[in-house]
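Sequence and fold:
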Amino acid sequence: MEKLCPAARGVWLVSTLLVASFLVSGGEGKCKDPRCNANLSPFQQWISVAECLRNTPPSCPDKYKLTIEGWMNVTSEDGEAFCKEGGCKDQTLAVLDCINDVKRDAWFGSGAVVQDLVFTINHGCTYGFNGTTLIKKKHK
């Protein structure tokens, strides 16, 4: 093999790394789970948060689906249906876990953080919901 100039060696190295990365990822480069994206910039982290929110299964009625506003639209009358085993509670907690995994400092339009929503769900399923999100300290 001939000796390569430094620039050609750099191009060869980058090309080799890109091909190796493509092969290791299964060739597709697409991951359906937002948690596959590690070490993202803050902007890309927010995109992953939006992807987590979109991953809510269709079995959960729209009124219970978590949005970027962070409003828990669960009333006292809705509590039993929301909290049942395998129901929207479990699905919503899975979405919140996803959000926490991709952006630990994520906050919602209501000023709530992930921990506030988890507390609201757990408190509501134990003592009843009142249609509001319990926020310890609003994000500014």
The two ends are 60 Å apart (CA to CA). Residues 17-28 have pLDDT under 50 and may be disordered. DSSP finds five helices and no strands in the chain.
